[in-house]
Structure formats: structure tokens, C-alpha cells
Write a structure and sequence with these properties.
Rossmann fold; alpha+beta; 42% helix; BirA Bifunctional Protein, domain 2; eight-stranded mixed sheet; five-stranded mixed sheet; 18% strand; RNA-binding; 441 residues
Length: 441
RNA sequence: GUGAGUGUAGCUCAGUCGGUUAGAGCACCAGGUUGUGGCCCUGGGGGUCGGGGGUUCAAGUCCCCUCACUCACCCCA
């Protein structure tokens, strides 16, 4: 035999073995179901995009993290960094798409990061976006769908943090720090959770924001009360900033809608410290955090009214979010939120006793499969012992034995692997019996 | 890109002050059981101790280099 190649995979990528795939498909199934119940339609786009499509949309940092190479014809291309930019390209390319366009997209994206906990180079995102509506109603739909999905997955506790880029602009404006410092300011205050108030202050000063402006910013950020109070107090601070006033007004409208959607206040947080890293956001921004496993955000998104204009020549208002599939799965695993026995789609294994009874086993498998029961027919060379072992290892709940005795009498044995109970019954009753057994919880 | 940590069986890890033939649990295979899994019992296979160099009578153990992986920072799902 030739010298074997070390079986390895590229850093930050993963194989998903069947047992993991079953769990992933379970989560994806629930997410997709909610997407469609909210009237979103599916979309897929290519893995590879032209470099000009990807570059310069997200900001300097993200540009650096985008996989980039040249093809054999020396064309500059890259792997998609997210699903929002490809969507924007699609909207511009197919102007006939009816607006508002509501699409969902579940595909992997790539980032040339150093992997760590809950962070990969290849990972799935589940995006929902509404293109062509400037109304806060569209943002409310997105936030409602986030709430609905996390509920459907039985998340015990989560907070959807919400802020508005225009409010952040307003704060920058009235602080006297200079509007071109907005990005620096956002980055600093975004770290509030990690480094605390004093840390943020140092960070701001370090980023060459004048001390009086820093004090003013921190004062504005420290408003308290429920979100209505805080919006009003913030409005007072921002009364001399037209962009700030606009942000406040939109947020008030958004929260009014969210009330009508009956989303519990306890899941929502108007959070002035939220800023989000990507450059393209222009309006409300939102992300979801959980407290228990400390893992960063599990969803993230916002309004980006100017991004599509880069491809189209005309601006389309748009808003949407990413549902972070990988982190949701990580959280669900750590909190053991998956239903038990979620190991294999196979419902029954039909064993093969020997060559003489093989036709009988095949007939049984055919019948079960025709009846819509997910049936594995044993194709290996082990005796019954090994076949039961296989069913056990895979977590297949039922095993059929069809040996010479059963064949002669037109009967089968059905064994329940969980209870160990085994029963002989006429073959004619098998489908009904299995359907009954499989319907049990 | 910056900093720290860890590399011993398929996996998780032990290995004393440097000392004879490197161990355990789990997993795997076979048998106990020629028509039945899990649990139990018996046996078995499996290791360039990440790689290279050095010190030493002697290195898994000490030193240097290198590679890989992990965690944190930055940023993000």
C-alpha cells in the first residue's frame, strides 16, 4: 500500500457527522419553518463572488478577513463574507423582483479569522431581510421573527438589544467630538460590557477624543429608566441634532410596533452601548445575547439603506438580520436543549438472517419504505448479533427479525430497542403496528 | 497580526528525582451466546511519547529550534 496521506481538514472548518447533522437539520428546519410562516421566500447565491462585489462594503477590518484569490484567468474573486452583500447584488441585478422583497437564505460564509470558541472560518448563517420598505414596520417584522425563532427553539432566556445608528450620530454630533470620529466612538462604547464605564472612558481618550466630549458622551449614555423614559431623556440631549431627532422618532415608532406585536418588554432592551461593527448600517441595529453560556451574540443585524445603491444606482431601503446557526447550536448543546433520542432519521432496521431469507427481508423493507417508514435494510455480512449491535450504536428504535421460521409462517418479529420488548405478528399487520409504535412519544 | 498555554494509544488523560519492557479508563475486535443490542465476564489488537537537534552511561521526563493545536486580544455569528 502506498504511504497514506494524513487525513486532516483546513483550520476553522468542520465535518458534520450524521449525528451532528441530525441536530443541525432539526434547528434549520425550525428556523426555515418560521421564516416561511412570516412570508419570506428562499434564495441561494454562489459561494464565489467577484472581488469587486465583496470589497469595500463592510469596512477595513472585514475586507482583511475576506478570502480572496485569483482564478486561472487572473480574475479577482472571493468567498462571500456574509449573505447581505450577495442579496444586495441580487436585488440590483434583478430589478423585476416585486418589492417589498422578503427573502431568507441559509448558506455557509467564510472569514479568514483565527478560530476560537464559537468561531469558525466556515460557518452557516441564516439571514432574513426585507428590501424596499423604509418603514419601521419592516424592522419590527425582523425583530418579531427573531423572537419567534428563539421561542420555537425553546430558548429559556435572551435579550434583543436595539439601538439606532442615527442616535449614535446625534450623540457624536452634540458631544462636539466631530462626526468623523463616530466610528472610533462606537467601537469604544461597544466594549462597555467587557471593560466597564471606566474602561470605555480610557478607550475614548486613547482614541484622541477630547476630554470634554468624552464626559458629555458618557453623561448621555448613562440615561436610565425603561426604554420610553430613556428615549425621552435621550431626545432632550439630542434636540439640536436633526439626525439624532430622526433616530429618536424612528425608535419610538419601532417600539410602538413591537408593543403591537406583543413582544414581552423583558426580551427587549434599548441599549445605547450597542453599535455593531459593519459600516453599512444606517438605521436601527439589533443583536441578541444570552447570559448563560458566554458566547457573544447569537443574532445580529440592522437597517442598511445605502448598500444596494452601490450596485444599483438607485437606493433601496433594506433591513434584516442574521440568525447565528452555529452559536445557537453551541448554546443548545451546552444547555442540553435538544430533544433526547435525536440521533438518526432511521426508524427501523430490517435484519437479514441468511441468503435463503434475503428475498423475504427485501420484501418487508420494500413494503415499509412504500408506507413512508424510514427503513434501513442490513447490507453487511454480520450475524444477527452484529446487526442488533448496529441498530443499538446508531440509535435505531426498532428492529425487524425475519428468519426461516417467520418466513414460513408469514410473520415477523418486531423488537423495541429502548424497552427490549419483542413481539411476533403476522406480516400483514406490520405496517399498522409500526405506525402505532412510531407515533408514541 | 499580538500574547499565553498544551502536544504520550482512535478519544480523555496518568507517567514520581532523568533509570529496566510507557500505563489506565473509554472506544475497537474476538469469545462467553450457531436466532437478539445495551449491562456483565474473559482475552486481544493498537504508541516514530508532534518533528529535528543537543546534554547524559541513560531522555516521555532537562535545554534549544520547529510544527501543530487550543485559549485570549482585535473583530465578529
Amino acid at each position: 500500500m502506498a504511504k497514506k496521506i494524513q487525513p486532516r481538514i483546513y483550520k476553522g472548518t468542520r465535518d458534520f457527522l450524521p449525528e451532528q447533522m441530525v441536530k443541525r437539520n432539526y434547528v434549520i428546519g425550525i428556523i426555515k419553518d418560521v421564516f416561511e410562516r412570516y412570508g419570506f421566500e428562499p434564495l441561494e447565491t454562489p459561494t464565489i463572488e467577484l472581488w469587486e462585489t465583496l470589497s469595500g462594503k463592510y469596512g477595513e477590518e472585514a475586507d482583511r478577513l475576506t478570502y480572496r484569490f485569483t482564478d486561472r484567468g487572473n480574475r479577482e474573486v472571493g468567498l462571500r463574507y456574509d449573505l447581505t452583500v450577495p442579496l444586495s447584488r441580487v436585488v440590483a441585478m434583478y430589478p423585476q423582483l416585486p418589492k417589498p422583497f422578503k427573502r431568507y437564505q441559509i448558506q455557509p460564509v467564510w472569514r479568514a479569522d483565527k478560530p476560537q470558541k464559537g468561531r469558525f472560518r466556515e460557518f452557516y448563517q441564516c439571514d432574513v431581510d426585507i428590501v424596499g420598505s423604509a418603514s419601521m414596520l419592516a424592522d419590527a417584522e425582523i425583530i418579531a421573527i427573531i423572537f419567534e425563532i428563539l421561542n420555537a427553539l425553546s430558548f429559556p432566556q435572551f435579550i434583543i438589544r436595539i439601538n439606532h445608528r442615527k442616535i449614535l450620530s446625534g450623540i457624536t454630533e452634540v458631544s462636539g467630538a466631530g462626526l468623523d470620529n463616530e466610528l472610533q466612538i462606537c467601537r469604544a462604547i461597544d466594549k462597555m460590557d467587557k471593560i466597564g464605564l471606566e474602561g470605555v472612558k480610557q478607550e475614548l481618550l486613547q482614541r484622541a477624543i477630547p476630554a470634554p466630549a468624552v464626559d458629555h458622551i458618557l453623561e448621555m449614555l448613562s440615561v436610565d429608566g425603561d426604554h420610553k423614559d430613556r428615549l425621552e431623556k435621550t431626545a432632550q440631549y439630542l434636540k439640536n441634532s436633526s439626525v439624532g431627532r430622526q433616530g429618536i422618532q424612528e425608535m419610538q415608532e419601532l417600539f410602538r410596533y413591537l408593543e403591537w406585536y406583543r413582544i414581552p418588554q423583558s426580551c427587549l432592551q434599548f441599549d445605547l452601548y450597542l453599535s455593531r461593527g459593519l459600516d453599512y448600517y444606517t438605521g436601527p441595529i439589533y443583536e441578541t445575547v444570552v447570559r448563560k453560556p458566554r458566547i457573544g451574540s447569537i443574532t445580529g443585524g440592522g437597517r442598511y439603506d445605502n448598500l444596494i445603491g452601490l450596485f444599483s444606482g438607485q437606493d433601496f431601503p433594506a433591513t434584516g438580520t442574521t440568525i447565528g446557526l452555529e452559536r445557537i447550536i453551541t448554546v443548545m448543546e451546552e444547555l442540553t436543549m435538544f430533544p433526547p433520542h435525536l440521533r438518526t432519521p432511521v426508524q427501523v432496521l430490517v435484519t437479514v438472517f441468511d441468503d435463503a431469507t434475503l428475498p423475504y427481508s427485501i420484501e418487508i423493507a420494500r413494503e415499509l419504505r412504500a408506507a413512508g417508514i424510514r427503513t434501513d435494510l442490513y447490507t453487511g455480512k454480520s450475524k444477527l448479533r452484529g446487526q442488533f449491535g448496529l441498530a443499538n450504536d446508531k440509535g435505531i428504535p426498532f428492529v425487524i427479525v425475519a428468519g426461516p421460521d417467520e418466513q414460513r409462517n408469514h410473520r415477523v418479529q418486531v423488537k423495541n430497542m429502548a424497552t427490549g420488548e419483542q413481539r411476533s405478528l403476522p406480516r400483514s399487520e406490520l405496517v399498522a403496528r409500526l405506525r402505532h409504535l412510531l407515533a408514541q412519544p
